[in-house]
Design brief:
Rossmann fold; two-stranded antiparallel sheet; 11% strand
């Protein structure tokens, strides 16, 4: 039997939908107000991960699309994922993908940056910061924004040292014009390589993006920020020579539709966004094949 596999970030995981939120209550079992919850967070008596459950939502578009296709689904997506983490999702799951399966990779924002350690993943910065539009970026933040806590054996000094490293490394190494171009270029290579690996499974592969701007266009913009001596001509291969991946950058307009209210108390897509997106994908990519299978 065919199986649907999906990969991506919080938008694919279904972050902030009702079944991924754990309501906080007082001693009498009465739900706390938003202001009371925020006060407890500010006071440090409630942690971010006490509220957000790190699992895919059954209301997210992968489940809703699977229901329309009458297929089982495995949603591999996780909140905060960058290109590197989505690539890892795909590599880890590759051996479970069969030729009769359907795979949808919804690539996140190219500008996201993450640093990896065995016991922690940190997505603290993004070189594109737009405080007026939360889906456009992960703004300057810190580990607990992604539900991460210090190790039980770590000391405050050790954790402060890690945070200091993240701050210094991202600002001085990864977020400079040179670091940004290097990261974009290598992320596109990684994306192309993952696409080839998935293609080798024989499954049907669909590549989507959460942003309307293509990677090539964003790389060209980053190129213009480089010092003049680094801009051109290309000594390394021009992406026009090797970047052949076809990515749907238009369908994201449906799941990011600004005319629909977002998820409660959050800037992520609501259940209505996810339902609309699942229906859009079903009609765009599956209606013809479904009709043929039933004829």
């Amino acid at each position: 039997m065919s199986h649907l596999h999906t990969f991506g970030c919080s938008i694919t995981q279904g972050f902030a939908l009702a079944d991924t939120i754990k309501p906080l209550v007082d001693d009498q079992g009465v739900a706390l107000t938003d202001d009371q919850v925020q006060h407890q967070i500010d006071q440090g008596t409630v942690k971010w991960e006490d509220i957000h459950i790190n699992r895919p939502s059954k209301s997210a578009w992968p489940q809703q699309l699977a229901d329309r296709l009458n297929l089982p689904v495995t949603n591999h997506a996780r909140r905060g994922a960058c290109f590197q983490q989505i690539a890892r999702q795909c590599v880890v799951a590759q051996d479970t993908i069969k030729p009769e399966d359907v795979v949808i990779v919804m690539w996140t924002y190219l500008s996201r940056l993450s640093l990896q350690w065995p016991a922690r993943t940190s997505v603290p910065y993004c070189n594109i910061v737009d405080s007026t539009f939360g889906w456009q970026t992960v703004i300057q933040g810190f580990n607990k924004f992604f539900g991460l806590s210090p190790h039980k054996d770590s000391t405050p000094t050790q954790d402060d040292d890690i945070q200091a490293y993240i701050k210094q490394a991202t600002r001085q190494t990864y977020l400079t014009p040179m670091g940004t171009f290097n990261r974009y270029y290598n992320s596109m290579i990684l994306q192309q390589t993952v696409a080839s690996a998935l293609h080798s499974t024989g499954a049907r592969i669909i590549h989507l993006s959460v942003e309307p701007d293509s990677c090539v266009r964003q790389l060209r913009v980053a190129q213009q920020e480089l010092p003049s001596t680094l801009r051109e001509p290309y000594v390394i291969p021009d992406p026009a020579e090797w970047y052949t991946l076809k990515v749907d950058h238009r369908s994201c307009d449906v799941i990011l539709d600004p005319s629909i209210p977002t998820a409660p108390n959050d800037m992520h897509p609501s259940e209505q966004h996810h339902s609309n997106f699942a229906e859009h994908l079903y009609r765009k990519y599956f209606t013809e094949s479904v009709s043929k299978n039933h004829s």
